Amino acid sequence: QVKVVESGGGLVEPGGSLRLSCVASGFNLTHYGVNWYRRGTGEGRELVGFIIIGEDTLFYADSVKGRFHISRDNAKNTVFLQMNDLKPEDTAPYFCNVPLRDLWGQGTQVTVSS
Question: 99 in helix, strand or coil?
Fold first, then answer.
């Protein structure tokens, strides 16, 4: 089955870190760009960042720049979202998306609270 599945969310205190994973099944993720989105309360989706094929071009939203980093592990068919210095406003469900495959994961909840 062709799909992507996120994991790694949880509850963390402000200033803490989490690493989210987006694992692909049924296709080679190496050949595709991947977006990370999050959904705020009462708002639409926010594009957190993306990585294209390889790691030569990355984009980050201003709200996460300098704190979040996207990377790949091709051997694991996985894209990661490393989140550092987390803030309460980062609280949201996070989703990975492979646009050329029109694939979305089910999301993983990140909660930043003391």
Answer: helix
Among left, alpha and beta (phi > 0; psi -120 to 50; other), residue 70 is beta
What's the pLDDT tens digit per position in 85-109? 999 999 999 999 999 999 999 999 9
Helices (H) and strands (E) in the chain, counts: 0, 11
Q: Is the distance from CB of 76 to CB of 25 less than 8 angstroms?
A: no
Residue 12 in contact with residue 1, Cβ under 8 Å?
no
CB 108 within 8 A of CB 8: yes
Alpha carbon 57 to chain centroid distance? Answer: 16
Please, which residues have CB within 8 angstroms of residue 41's CB and are 6 or more apart in sequence?
A: 92
Residue 106 and residue 5 in contact, taking contact as beta carbons nearer than 8 Å:
yes
Could you tell me the pLDDT band of residue 37, with boundaries at 50, 70 and 90?
A: very high
Integer Cα distance of 103 and 99 in angstroms:
6
